Amino acid sequence: MTVTVDKIRSIPNDSIGSASGFVSPYLIDFITLGVVGYVVFGDLSNPIVKACGFILAAALAIWAALSAKALRLYMIDTPRSKVVSAAQGFVELQGSCEFYGNRETQGFLSGPPCVWHRYFIIKLGIGLRKNNIAGRGGLFPLQIGASEIPFVIRDETGVCIVNPKGAKVISSSQRSWAEFGKYFSSKYIAHGAKMYVIGELRADGCAITSYNENAEVGSLLTTWKKDQTWLLEEFDVDQNGELDPEEWQSAVKRAKALARDLYEQKGVERIENVIRKPGNGLPMLISDRHPDVLANKFARLGYFNVAVACFCIFAALYQFV
């Protein structure tokens, strides 16, 4: 039994661990800067209201800094593994990305072949100019989406299926253009690119029962008995038209060896490793950038938010000077 795309999409996030919902520090920063902009440029004359606004922004910035720090530590503390030796649970894998099975993913609107892409389409307002895609009429979002088709990460030891559903993907490749009054943008991870994945690894497929030699050999011999012509040609050494005890033992010996081989092959085909989004609230990260570069990026993001928090605290105190 092989693992199908639809089956992977429906895999429940049932990992162990306590729920601890994760909020992206980028989203928190977006809200923080919005609050700061409203307080600074809004029509607020009451210093107490302004101070409260800055305090709220400072609290959000501290939250973002802690979130970025937690994300960096999550990347650093998760053990880096090879596919063949990766333990079940939280793992970090590095390798090259490939299509899963016979499925190939074409990039957004005839873009280059890729294993994952995210896109959005915006309708441009009136007054479109060459170097001003927004024009005078503003922007109107039309469509946004991301692919959820599983793909494969491969290193020198083996392969692992990646289920990108719900993952945070950081890609370095991007296409964007404007035509027919619309703006198109797509970020993607190209086929064959070096990839970094951190998430929860689980073996998926049908459970393999213990080997029952009598049952397996008996089933095989029953099948052989249905073709007496072949059975006699194969094991009737003296060609007397029947199998004597020694000849039958020879058939049983071959059936035992073949039954074991068939069982082991069946087991290999029925189990595949899948890395997916953890079910305890922690994020799944996928990127075509080196993990050390990403860890440093989140460290800088934390420092930035600390600076924003300090600014907001001083700004709040300044309202009472």
Explained architecture:
- With 321 residues, this protein is α+β, with helices and mostly antiparallel strands.
- It folds into two domains: 5-207 and 269-318, no CATH class; 213-268, no CATH class.
- The protein has helices at 5-9, 25-41, 47-77, 213-225, 228-235, 245-270, 291-318; strands at residues 89-99, 114-124, 139-146, 151-155, 158-162, 168-170, 173-179, 182-190, 194-205, 271-276, 285-287.
- The strands form two sheets. The protein has a five-stranded mixed β-barrel.
- The radius of gyration is 30 Å and the shape is elongated.
- The termini are far apart.
- Residues 1-21, 126-137, 205-209 and 267-271 have low confidence and may be disordered.
Summarize the structure in short.
The strands form 2 sheets. Strands 1-4-5-10-9 form a 5-stranded mixed barrel.
Number of domains: 2
Which residues sit in consecutive blocks of at least 5 with pLDDT less than 50? 1-21, 126-137, 205-209, 267-271
The portion of residues assigned to helices is 25-40%
Shape: elongated
Question: What brief labels describe this structure?
Answer:
elongated, 5-stranded mixed β-barrel, 2 domains, alpha+beta, 25% strand, 40% helix, 321 residues
Secondary-structure blueprint of this entry?
Layout: H1 5-9, H2 25-41, H3 47-77, E1 89-99, E2 114-124, E3 139-146, E4 151-155, E5 158-162, E6 168-170, E7 173-179, E8 182-190, E9 194-205, H4 213-225, H5 228-235, H6 245-270, E10 271-276, E11 285-287, H7 291-318
Parallel strand pairs: 5-10, 6-11
Antiparallel strand pairs: 1-4, 1-9, 2-3, 2-8, 4-5, 7-8, 9-10, 9-11
Helix pairs in contact: 2-3, 3-7, 4-6
